[in-house]
Design goal:
10% of the residues lie in helices and 39% in strands. β1 and β2 form a beta hairpin. With 190 residues, it is mainly beta.
Length: 190
């Protein structure tokens, strides 16, 4: 198993060792000791699974008081997975990194607490699974506008039609409002 650093400190691309033959393949998707040695010491308390169609964009999501670390993988299909640094004192605040994850490349992306997360579906459909280090709390969820120019994510989606968004993702506030909320100087922008 390889643990590859990305342009944002703490965000790690995981390449599992895949054993393939004419019957199919086998791989470890998580191993506590190997992940800890690779820089991912956190324990996971919740697993999530989403199914989405082509052009769907989910995110950018985070939790305010109980930040979640997420280990994300596409079990079927292909996604462009994004982490945005929202740690107020970070030198990379507002910076993002994106990786293509697919059922064929078997890669996973570790997104530590303190980052917002989102992905868009590049294939016809995609099944995405991710492990979380904190339980989801609906009253603690925050979102950032997917196309906030202050972040400038280069989503690989057709610009003529735009992504398929939920109402909460379409109407999410910008990064500046979330940073005020995170620093405790603002009010809930929702």
């Amino acid at each position: 198993m390889k643990f590859l650093p990305t342009a944002l400190e703490g965000v790690i691309l995981v390449e599992p060792r895949v054993f393939s033959d004419d019957r199919g393949f086998f791989m470890e998707t998580y191993h506590l000791e190997k992940f800890a040695a690779g820089g991912i010491p956190d324990l996971f308390v919740q697993d999530n699974h989403s199914y989405s169609i082509h052009g769907t964009l989910r995110g950018l999501h985070a939790q305010l008081r109980h930040p979640q670390g997420k280990l994300v993988r596409a079990v079927q299909g292909e996604i462009f997975d994004v982490a945005v640094d929202i740690r107020p004192d970070s030198p990379t605040l507002g910076k993002w990194v994106g990786e293509r994850l697919s059922g064929e490349n078997h890669r996973q992306l570790w997104i530590p607490p303190g980052f917002a997360h989102g992905f868009c579906v590049l294939s016809e459909t995609a099944h995405v699974q991710y492990k979380c280090t904190e339980l989801y709390r609906q009253d603690d969820e925050i979102g950032i506008l997917w196309n906030d120019p202050a972040i400038g994510i280069d989503w690989p989606l057709p610009l003529d039609t735009g992504p398929l968004l939920s109402p909460k993702d379409r109407d999410a506030p910008g990064l500046e409002a979330i940073l005020l909320l995170l620093s405790g100087h603002g009010q809930d922008p929702a």
